[in-house]
Design brief:
Layout lengths: L2 H17 L4 E10 L2 H10 L6 E6 L5 E10 L2 H11 L6 E2 L1
Helix pairs in contact: 1-3
C-alpha cells in the first residue's frame, strides 16, 4: 500500500472509532461496472454476514451502485472489507 492509501485508512479508522460504539451498523457504497461477475463478487464479500444489499443500475446501464448495510464488529473490520473488495476490477468505493 502506498503512503497516501495508508494515511487514508488511518484517518478513516480514527473517524470510525470516534463516531461509533462497536459493534455498529455501517453502510458501504460501491460503484461497479454492470457485469454480473463483478456485482456477485461484491455480494459474495458480504456473504453470511446478514447484510442487506441493494443494487441500482445507472440510467445508461454501464454501472451499478451496490449499497451494503451490515453490522460490523470494529473499524478494523470495515477497513479490511474495503481492502478485500478493492481487488475487484473497476470498483469505486464511496
Amino acid at each position: 500500500m502506498d503512503k497516501k492509501t495508508t494515511e487514508f485508512y488511518a484517518r478513516l479508522k480514527e473517524e470510525l472509532n470516534n463516531a461509533n460504539v462497536w459493534p455498529a451498523k455501517y453502510l458501504f457504497k460501491f460503484i461497479v461496472p454492470t457485469e454480473i461477475e463483478k456485482i456477485k463478487a461484491v455480494e459474495n464479500a458480504f456473504d453470511r454476514m446478514g447484510a442487506v444489499i441493494d443494487t441500482r443500475q445507472s440510467k445508461a446501464g454501464k454501472f451499478t451502485s451496490v449499497s451494503v448495510d451490515v453490522q460490523m464488529p470494529s473499524a478494523e473490520s470495515i477497513i479490511k472489507k474495503y481492502q478485500e473488495v478493492s481487488t475487484i476490477e473497476g470498483i469505486i468505493s464511496l
